Amino acid sequence: MPNDAYNETCAAIANALWNHRLFLLHGDAKYLDVLERILYNGFLAGVSMSGDRFFYPNPLVCDGRKPFNQGTLGRAPWFRTACCPVNVVRFVPSIPGFLYAVDDDGISVNLFSESEARVPLHGQRIRLSQRTDYPWSGRIRVTVDPQQPTTFQLKVRIPGWARGRPVPSDLCRYAKAEQTGWTVTLNDQPVEQSLQKGFIVLNRRWRSGDTVELNLPMPVRRVLAHDAVKADAGRVALERGPLVYCFEAVDNGGDVADLVVPDDATFQCERRADLSGGVTVIRVAATRVVRNDDGTLTNRPVEAVAIPYYAWAHRTVGPMAVWMPRRPE
Questions:
Q1: Are residues 88 and 104 in the same domain?
Q2: By 3-state DSSP, what share of the chain in percent is helix, strand and coil, each rounded to 5?
Q3: Both 106 and 78 in a single domain?
Q4: Does residue 241 share a domain with residue 302?
Q5: Structural domains of the chain, count
Q6: Are residues 111 and 209 in the same domain?
Q7: Residue of 271, 157, 185, 174 lying closest to 220 (CA atoms)
Q8: Is the bond leading into 319 cis (omega within 30 degrees of zero)?
Q9: Domain boundaries, position 209
């Protein structure tokens, strides 16, 4: 699993659709964790902010020279074999259908997005509204408006990243595995933190205006790969909420190959409204390895900037990396 692996956009879409179907079959939120991770990272990187240029592959490292994208370096408007662009076109309109699911017991809230929906259940339509700035903020307010009071289960997903697991396997892990201190309230009253397959289950007679609020803190998390992933031995990646971050040369003095993110690095988050439609960047107390005239190396403190992986290659195409050395190499 080298960091310059192909990681095709079509494969990301297929994996998202597969995990959505596995969730519908088994009702386990771990499949939605994978779906969400793909949506915000592996898939979203494959299409430009303008929606008219595409990556076929989505590598986790770029040297700024190799034309990895079917002979081009940046996103391209079309390809000789154009499966990725048309897959994007069919996939994006399907995303609203992932937010909720219905079964005989009730409704599950699968993903979080500023939205309104009318969900058929027990012979009526339940209006659900979400108010949130997710994925930049972990505060989500879900308001339930049935046409008349009715009893059903409302299952609300608590993402794996909020519970100390970046993925539902041992492929990678957080350097510190503690949970983020998430909370749920129902009409301003705390809800017991007992999960069933990754969901808080609220079984009650719902009335118009009932409100569920989630608070999912989003600290910057250090991610380590499984020891068997040799390409990432001694390296670290950064995440915040569901977003994977990367270091891009345009923010870091023209290169990233000489940057080190040590284990004691500190982080500061900053909202940048001017960047890629508005993103939260991470300012990192990092180290730059400098080669002196006599051939010796010097480690110099530097403030590095990490941006969401999906936002790379929108300003210029140059060196980029997700997995960074923890010590000078």
A1: no
A2: 20, 40, 40
A3: no
A4: yes
A5: 3
A6: yes
A7: 174
A8: no
A9: 99-218
Is the domain of 306 the same as that of 228? yes
**pLDDT tens-digit profile of 165-175?**
999 999 999 99
Q: For residue 47, what is the DSSP state?
A: B
User: Cα separation of 302 and 286, whole Å?
Assistant: 5
Tokens of 135: 């994925």
Strands 150-157 and 172-174, by their bridges, are unpaired
Q: Which pairing describes strands 106-109 and 150-157: parallel, antiparallel, or unpaired?
A: parallel
pTM value > 0.90: yes
User: Does residue 302 share a domain with residue 251?
Assistant: yes
- Distance set, CA 251 to CA 69, 121, 218 (Å): 22, 49, 23
| Nearest Cα residue to 251 out of 308, 328, 325 | 308
The whole-angstrom separation of Cα 111 and Cα 29 is: 10
Task: Say what the pLDDT of residue 80 is.
Answer: 84
CB 184 within 8 A of CB 193: yes
Tokens of 113: 């997005």
CB atoms within 10 A of CB 261: 24
